[in-house]
Amino acid sequence: MPSRLRLPDAIGVATGGLRARRIRAALSALGIAIAVAAVVAVLGIADSAKADLLTQLGEQGNLLTVASAESINGRTVNLPDTAEPMIARIPPVQTVTAVGSVDNVTVRRSRAIPAEQSGGMNVLAAQGSLLPTMSAHLLLGRYLDAAAEHYPVTVLGYEAAKILGIGSLDTPTQILLGDHYFTVTGVLAPVTVAPEVDVAALISFGQAQQVFGRAAGPSRIYLRADPDQVADVAAVLTATTVPDGKDDVQVRRPSDLLVARIAAKGAFVGLFLGLGGIALLIAGVGIANIMVISVLERRGEIGLRRALGARRRHVAAQFLLESTLLAAAGGVLGIGLGVLATAVAARLGGNPVSVPPTALAAGLGAALLVGALAGLYPAGRAARLSPVEALRSL
Amino acid sequence: MTHALELSAVRKEYPPPTAVTALDGIDLVVDAGETVAIVGASGAGKSTLLSILGTLERPTSGSVRIAGTDTSALSDPQLSEVRATRLGFVFQQFFLLEHLTVLDNVATGLLYRGVPGRVRRQRAAEVLCEVGLEGRIRHRAGQLSGGERQRVAIARAIVGRPAVLLADEPTGNLDSATGAGIAELLSSRAGDGTTVVLITHNADVAASMRRQVHLRDGRIVADSRGQHAVAAPSS
């Protein structure tokens, strides 16, 4: 009967060797765990953020904007009055809304704030159809209604409310638009595809004309088209908006911004994965180091096992399994830590938790590979040790 | 007749920088059930002889037969098989695995025979009873006295019922009373047909074996069995 070592026994021998040196094994596994956690967390956090962006992309992919590309003396040239109803008649167009910039009107909390410190906010004339067209919703209060055409009321974008320090509308709140006080009736949630709305104070077109003398016509039109015919609609928007072709207009797809952000996140993932890979390499060198020390310390045990009938390959398998199991334990711990970090980061960022299964498989696979590679040299060295030399080493 | 061990013209030379002839033409025959003490001064070649008998190293020339099999023709895995199935080793330093219990240390003696763990432990428990350590089965090696540790090492060596038991200074780290007990335990193995070969500096331990073989400078200078008796060199 040839000398043989059953697989369960080989695993038992390897785990026994690790249990005999618990602290050293735990510290080595921790190195792998940190590296794997970094890899899993990078992939998980990126995936969670991307999942949110992809959801938004799905929701916002059919949104188009038409804006005037011309200005005179810093004032935007408005689009023709007919543009909005004409666009609404394009069959695949589902909803349309128009906004009109109210130029050179500052937004302040009170007269105590200097006019030049308007915080980058602007005033926009808006319609009731803005909410459904932009899939926007209110954080506080209510939106502009029919009465808003005749009264000085405003709805603030998310960032504008933050800049003005308005977090509640429980008490009547007024802000200063130009030299006129307007009552804040609502605050919008962030509108990712239209950042210009986030920093705006929205008022009705009627008030924009009556109070600030704004000329008729929108400065920008937002529309949603049938998702399957977005490109077709985009192709006819210029001609529909300015049939005579006298003015220049810009047609844009705001979801391109989301696509760019997804691509940007992918670029950072590559960078951080590279750093995680380096950490994994360092942890692997650490394991190789302690395995070499272990072989030197356990020459007597190696000699004993050879005397008991172990083949060279049994000795090699023992040390190879030890390093691989060590790395596997670190890998499993690292995956747990990585998922936890992803969950915490996603929660803080308000994103859904999403850890791609490939990240888990890659984390564990990388740990096993590093462990096996780190164990190759020590295992070979242990196997090559002459039994007599090993036994006489003490 | 097949002998348990048979050495013929065995030489062992170590290459430079050592450049030593450790064994110089050893002829030795040991029958099954014999107990043999190999004695001699330090450097006489005792440990080298035991290593070659135990197939832990190969002779430079000459032949070593174990139960009729010429080991010089065997590959390294085949030598491992010989050690796993036919030989048992006892060392002066015990070489117990400190993280294992006494029972598991003894069961390790069957590890490389592919015996299932449950059977290994069952046989280990039986052998521990034979060496008088049934009360220490669950203890760790570090909790035992020197004599008990050597008994555990002997139990590990005999758990596979080897044909030949090789012991390298088994009483070297023990006091004389404990050493005598270990020597008695080893010689008692001959009762069931095990061949026992031990190396010792201790005259009392050597006397407890039926046969004594004296080595000097790598040669057998005296053998109490008579058939290999050689006159000691006058120099």
TrEMBL record, chain A:
Keyword Ion transport applies: no
Main location: membrane
Record-annotated membrane-spanning stretches: 25-46, 267-296, 317-346, 358-377
Residue ranges occupied by any ABC3 transporter permease C-terminal domain in the UniProt entry: 276-387
Keyword set, alphabetical order: Cell membrane, Membrane, Transmembrane, Transmembrane helix
Subcellular location: Cell membrane
Membrane topology: Multi-pass membrane protein
Domain MacB-like periplasmic core, residue spans: 26-238
InterPro entries for the chain: ABC3_permease_C, MacB_PCD, Macrolide_Exporter_MacB
Record bears the keyword Transmembrane: yes
Positions in coiled-coil regions: none
Assigned protein family: Belongs to the ABC-4 integral membrane protein family.
PANTHER family found in the cross-reference section: ABC TRANSPORTER PERMEASE YTRF, MEMBRANE COMPONENT OF TRANSPORTER-RELATED
Name of this chain's protein: ABC transporter permease
Organism: Paractinoplanes globisporus
TrEMBL record, chain B:
Protein name: ABC transporter ATP-binding protein
One term of GO molecular function: ATP binding
Keyword Protease on entry: no
Family annotation (SMART domains): AAA
The organism's taxonomic lineage, starting at the top: Bacteria, Bacillati, Actinomycetota, Actinomycetes, Micromonosporales
Domain ABC transporter: start-end pairs: 5-235
Keywords: ATP-binding, Nucleotide-binding, Transport
Acyltransferase listed as a keyword: no
InterPro entries found in the cross-reference section: AAA+_ATPase, ABC_transporter-like_ATP-bd, ABC_transporter-like_CS, ABC_transpr_LolD-like, MacB-like_ATP-bd, P-loop_NTPase
